[in-house]
């Protein structure tokens, strides 16, 4: 459902949030290793997250990536998805067809509209703190 870049972006944001709660910045190398993504690809993803004010990039010897602790709870999963994939998840055809529309729907167009609406609600009602604390507590897992 999400692009590979978006999946990595979500994992990276969660990892950075967890480290930020501990007062630590995380290097590109550590993030790429944790989310099992090539460093160059991870750098592009992190650049998009930084441009959209989801993560902070700090240069220098003590630099790395971080998220201000007070911001973690206010970052919605929808913001991360939008920063990486834009709105394609809300407007694309469920079957991946190029010419699917209200006027010329694919066989699952109307059913997928309901799925898309539920997905939007979930993304807008799930925040980064919820994801990070779920992993920290062991209630959920971040496996790569």
Could you explain how this protein is built, in words?
This is Rrf2 family transcriptional regulator. One of its GO terms (cellular component) is cytosol. It comes from Aquimarina atlantica. One of its GO terms (molecular function) is DNA-binding transcription factor activity. The chain is mainly alpha-helical. The chain has one domain: Arc Repressor Mutant, subunit A (Orthogonal Bundle), CATH 1.10.10. The protein has eight helices and two strands, in the order αααββααααα. The chain has helices spanning 4-21, 28-35, 39-51, 69-72, 77-85, 88-91, 109-124, 128-137; strands spanning 56-58, 64-66. The longest helix has 18 residues, at 4-21. The protein is elongated. The model has no long low-confidence stretch (mean pLDDT 91).
Mean pLDDT equals 91
CATH architect. name: Orthogonal Bundle
Helix tally? 8
Q: What is the CA–CA distance across the termini?
A: 17 Å
* Total strands: 2
Pfam family, one: Rrf2
Organism: Aquimarina atlantica
GO molecular function, one term: DNA-binding transcription factor activity
Protein name: Rrf2 family transcriptional regulator
Give me some keywords for this one:
Rrf2 family transcriptional regulator; 8 helices; mainly alpha; 144 residues; Tscrpt_reg_Rrf2; WH_DNA-bd_sf; single chain; two-stranded antiparallel ribbon; Arc Repressor Mutant, subunit A
